[in-house]
Design goal:
- This protein is of the alpha/beta class.
- It has 2 domains: 168 residues, 2-Layer Sandwich (VC0802-like), CATH 3.30.2130.30; 220 residues, HUPs (Rossmann fold), CATH 3.40.50.620.
- Helix content is 36%, strand content 21%.
- Strands 1, 4, 5, 6, 7, 8 and 9 form a 7-stranded mixed beta sheet that branches. The protein has a 7-stranded mixed beta sheet with strand order 14-13-10-11-12-15-16, sandwiched between helices. The protein has a two-stranded antiparallel ribbon with strand order 2-3.
- β13, α9 and β14 form a beta-alpha-beta unit.
- It is elongated.
Length: 413
């Protein structure tokens, strides 16, 4: 039995609570992801109790501030609270509540409050309403604050669990969504622009475990370490699980093979080829979809007709999470997650050297005929055999580039 009272963190989920009989699957993933993210910071213990996740410090030398900053970015966490755990007897709850209100009085100087009580332990002697009323009366006497149920300046939260009570007065908002890893593996086409990192974050928010794939024009893959692609990978890794990796695919062989291609065909045909390469790699690692930063109608190559040409002959879904966003919404998200500054930094992207005047209504049959003429499946295998991988270690935060291993083909689940 833990020594009460003590301070802990509660990273609370929201959407997971709707999952019915599958809830434990999502809870377990979120618990694991939280433990992984906290591991580099020090000695923390993560506990799942009564559909609550509790984070305890095992080492008094470890502070809470860094842990709070990390947990506010863990996908699946709807809100985060620093709580006092105490025994279930009313006196212990009252003492903890009064102490929390006194601390709040020093920080924000409220003049009114309310008590919000929840009782997952239905055998507790007081109902939620009875506990809220009794605490409200005692807190009003002990703190000098008045009760205001409609527009309180402070709220005291009390959560009654099976073997302890949780008391707190503040919540920090988390990103919400689902824990990374619960919906499967996806290969994400990462460009040097603003949209694709935002799309990657949105895919992770829906529980996808991403492997990134990028076509580069530099003379060697090692040179990409000195570009914004490395820092973008670092930023996105804050939200993923495990060590992030970016597959670096050379552009040169495609450029040479299609040197006689009509200029107005270039953007759509190239992106059709990118999708083929991404699918080939996805099959190797057991991913079940690819994703991109495509936004419907934002540029000429992203008309509905051209997106259909890019997807023609696909063997798996292509997911486009920013397809309905306008540019200002994407920029706002990029700034919020920290990818915007890198995205606007100078970098020679493949898209900058293909035609700037694409056709807006490419024909699917024409694109498939071009794919057959240049034997894109064989060309895809060739460029993958010459590819490298940029790996980010989740603990040391160090990045290295090494040759891409030729992994055996893995059938999709």
């Amino acid at each position: 039995m833990a020594a009460f009272p003590r301070v802990s963190l509660v990273p609370h989920y929201a959407e997971i609570g709707t999952k019915g009989n599958n809830r434990s699957f999502f809870e377990t993933h979120l618990e694991r992801n939280i433990a992984e993210k906290l591991q580099p910071l020090g000695d923390f213990k993560v506990e799942l109790l009564n559909q609550r996740i509790l984070v305890h410090k095992e080492d008094d030398l470890v502070g809470w501030e860094d842990a709070i900053a990390v947990l506010k970015e863990v996908l699946g966490v709807a809100w985060l609270a620093k709580v006092v755990e105490c025994r279930l007897d009313y006196q212990s709850i009252r003492d903890a509540a009064l102490q929390e209100l006194e601390l709040m009085k020093k920080d924000s100087k409220p003049t009114s409050f309310r008590v919000t009580a929840k009782r997952s332990n239905k055998s507790y002697e007081l109902s939620s309403q009875q506990l809220a009323v009794r605490l409200g009366e005692d807190m009003m006497k002990g703190s000098g604050l008045r009760v205001d149920l409609s527009h309180p300046q402070a709220t005291l939260f009390v959560d009654i669990l099976s073997d302890r009570a949780l008391v707190h007065t503040a919540k920090d908002k988390g990103p919400g969504g689902l824990p990374v890893g619960v919906t499967g593996k996806v290969v994400h086409l990462l460009s040097g622009g603003i949209d694709s990192p935002v799309a990657a974050w949105l895919m992770m928010k829906r529980g996808c475990d991403l492997t990134y794939l990028h076509f580069f024009v530099a003379p060697s893959a090692e040179q990409i370490l000195e570009t914004k692609m490395a820092s973008t990978l670092k930023t996105l890794s804050r939200f993923g699980i495990g060590g992030a990796r970016l597959i670096l695919v050379p552009f040169t062989d495609y450029q040479v093979a299609t040197s006689d291609l009509r200029p107005d065909y270039e953007p759509v045909v190239f992106r059709h080829f990118m999708r083929i390469v991404a699918e080939r790699f996805a099959n190797r690692i057991g991913a079940t979809a690819i994703s991109t930063g495509d936004n419907l109608g934002q540029v000429a190559s992203q008309t509905l007709y051209n997106l259909a040409c890019i997807d023609a002959g696909s063997s798996m879904p292509t997911l486009r999470p920013v397809v309905g966003y306008d540019k200002s919404e994407i920029v706002e998200l990029a700034q919020a997650i920290g990818t915007y500054e890198d995205s606007i930094a100078d970098y020679k992207d493949c898209c900058s050297i293909v035609s700037r005047h694409p056709r807006t209504r490419m024909n699917v049959e024409n694109v498939l005929e071009v794919s057959r003429r240049y034997d894109f499946p064989a060309l895809a295998e060739k460029v993958l055999s010459q590819s490298a991988v940029m790996k980010l270690d989740s603990h040391t935060r160090q990045i290295r580039v090494e040759p891409l291993e030729t992994a055996p083909r893995i059938k999709n689940a």
